[in-house]
Amino acid sequence: MSPSAGNDLAALQLRAAGRRVLVAEDDDDLRLLLAVALRSQGYRVDEVSDGAALLEHLAGSHGARASSHAGRAGSHAEGPNRPAGDDPFDLLISDLHIPCLSGLDVLASLRDAASRLPVILITADHNPQPEALARRLGAAAYFHKPFDVCDLLTAVINVSPRVPAG
Fold this sequence. Notes:
The protein is an alpha/beta fold.
């Protein structure tokens, strides 16, 4: 790891405390890898494997249905029965193509709702058209698989809301 990567990861740890990230990825291994990498830096991570669960989490409905769905998805979500006031995510990392919904649909919905939630999209699709549309819809970052997890963590640093000083 380069010295600058070490500095970036140290900055991530300082800014990660208490931050919630939703990871939407249908590949179980990649979803777990992303969740473990983020948790190792101090993030609280929820995981979903399809668009229906993604929408449910974004809507804040973490009740029994979300909990049972998360189990079917092989999720390792922390605390599915959170208090309602503790709901907003600080970041969404989503595959461009997940079952039931596309990352572009999510971006369009968030834009229509005037949401300020940063979204990082990941995809195995190397077609430049979805990336251009994702950028127009407000994607904070866009990664082509395979990608370096340290590069993604650096993007997380760059798009995460800053913690006020003091």
